[in-house]
């Protein structure tokens, strides 16, 4: 069987990561609004935990975005 591996196309990774960060931030803001109006402590706790995980994801994506931007500047070498 002859299979060819498609090389990574990293040209839009910075933009893709930027969009992912913005989407995650929007979800965090929505969760904050829901917490303001929720009377359920269980729901508030669940949303706080989700936002903590989201913040960790944002931090990781920001680092990856910086790495990708550097790789782009270096010609992906």
TrEMBL record:
<feature type="compositionally biased region" description="Basic and acidic residues">
    <location>
        <begin position="35"/>
        <end position="55"/>
    </location>
</feature>
<protein>
    <recommendedName>
        <fullName>Small, acid-soluble spore protein Tlp</fullName>
    </recommendedName>
</protein>
<feature type="region of interest" description="Disordered">
    <location>
        <begin position="35"/>
        <end position="77"/>
    </location>
</feature>
<dbReference type="Pfam" id="PF19824">
    <property type="entry name" value="Tlp"/>
</dbReference>
<dbReference type="InterPro" id="IPR017524">
    <property type="entry name" value="SASP_thioredoxin-like"/>
</dbReference>
<keyword id="KW-0749">Sporulation</keyword>
<comment type="similarity">
    <text>Belongs to the Tlp family.</text>
</comment>
<dbReference type="GO" id="GO:0030435">
    <property type="term" value="P:sporulation resulting in formation of a cellular spore"/>
</dbReference>
<dbReference type="GO" id="GO:0030436">
    <property type="term" value="P:asexual sporulation"/>
</dbReference>
């Amino acid at each position: 069987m002859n299979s060819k591996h498609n090389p990574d196309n990293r040209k839009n990774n910075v933009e893709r990561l930027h969009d992912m960060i913005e989407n995650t931030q929007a979800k965090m803001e929505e969760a904050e609004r829901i917490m303001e109006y929720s009377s359920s402590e269980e729901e508030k706790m669940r949303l706080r935990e989700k936002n903590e995980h989201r913040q960790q994801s944002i931090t990781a994506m920001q680092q990856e975005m910086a790495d990708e931007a550097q790789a782009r500047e270096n010609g992906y070498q």
